């Protein structure tokens, strides 16, 4: 679509530029908006973001490698490992691996510097959908994470990419997921004040995104990410994430109910 972009006379991969923009926007929301509701220093939020980014990079790559292991085993005798190994580390990331890694990065920072994990996660996890929304536009430009062959309204055709099939109309999965993530982020912004001090914002994101991702996976065309019992790796993770999100929301409701009951008893 648009794999490279000219920025001040220099050529950069559009995916990288948009990913960087997404990071800047996400961290900015964490530092200048979500942090207003918690007593945590802005520098701690920034440094915790760096830990989360390291976790995202490692987690996204590791899960990608795990998804291609079955392919490697099945084609072990015919694979050119001199080509495969560099390719594994040069490209290929799985979002859910990054999400898990990012959460672990937040956890590590909270333990090292004795800052509430609950507060840090309530500040940083809500920024994920805006980062993801911008990042998916990078996928669109690069041609990765492409959709199934599709000849209906809104189909897109790639001609200049090393990832998607060229010259074939495809389902605009990157655009739709970008829009869905933006909608999720808007919902989080509108409800954030109501859920301050709880994990409800985190659980709301988990519930909404897991549903979106599970459905959209049926329209993905890059099936190399692993299939088990008819569902992709990301769909199985979506099911787990949905259960966790619902469970966390119910837990917070019960906790709030217990706190309210306790206050009424003391009165």
Commentary on this structure:
This protein is mainly α and 267 residues long. The chain has one domain. 65% of the residues lie in helices and 6% in strands. The strands form three sheets. Strands 1-2 form a two-stranded antiparallel sheet. Strands 3-4 form a two-stranded antiparallel sheet. Helix 6 packs antiparallel against helix 7 and helix 8 runs antiparallel to helix 9. The C terminus is likely disordered.
Keyphrases for this structure?
6 strands, mainly alpha, two-stranded antiparallel sheet, 267 residues, disordered C terminus
Short description:
The chain has 267 residues and is mainly α. It contains nine helices and six strands; from the N terminus they run ββααααααββααββα.
What is the element layout, followed by pairings?
Blueprint: E1 4-7, E2 10-13, H1 14-32, H2 42-74, H3 81-90, H4 95-112, H5 117-124, H6 128-142, E3 156-157, E4 169-170, H7 173-191, H8 200-216, E5 227-228, E6 231-232, H9 233-266
Antiparallel strand pairs: 1-2, 3-4, 5-6
């Amino acid at each position: 679509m648009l794999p490279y972009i000219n920025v001040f006379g220099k050529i950069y991969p559009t995916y990288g530029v948009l990913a960087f923009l997404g990071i800047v926007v996400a961290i900015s929301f964490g530092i200048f908006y979500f942090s207003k509701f918690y007593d945590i220093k802005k520098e701690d939020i920034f440094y915790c973001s760096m830990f989360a980014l390291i976790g995202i990079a490692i987690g996204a790559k590791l899960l990608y490698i795990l998804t291609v292991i079955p392919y490697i085993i099945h084609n072990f005798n015919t694979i050119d490992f001199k080509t495969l190994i560099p390719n594994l580390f040069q490209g290929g990331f799985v979002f859910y691996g990054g999400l898990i890694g990012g959460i672990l990065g937040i956890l590590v920072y909270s333990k090292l510097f004795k800052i509430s994990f609950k507060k840090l996660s309530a500040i940083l996890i809500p920024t994920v959908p805006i980062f993801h929304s911008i990042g998916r536009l990078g996928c669109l430009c690069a041609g990765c994470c492409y959709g199934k062959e599709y000849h209906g309204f809104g189909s897109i055709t790639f001609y200049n990419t090393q990832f998607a099939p060229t010259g074939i109309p495809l389902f605009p999965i990157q655009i739709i997921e970008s829009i869905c993530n933006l909608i999720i982020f808007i919902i989080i912004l509108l409800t954030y004040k109501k859920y301050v001090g709880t994990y409800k914002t985190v659980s709301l994101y988990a519930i909404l995104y897991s549903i979106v991702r599970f459905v959209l996976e049926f329209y993905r065309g890059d099936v190399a990410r692993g299939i088990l019992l008819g569902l992709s790796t990301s769909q199985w993770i979506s099911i787990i994430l949905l259960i966790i999100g619902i469970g966390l929301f119910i837990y917070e409701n019960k906790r709030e109910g217990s706190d309210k009951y306790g206050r009424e008893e003391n009165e």
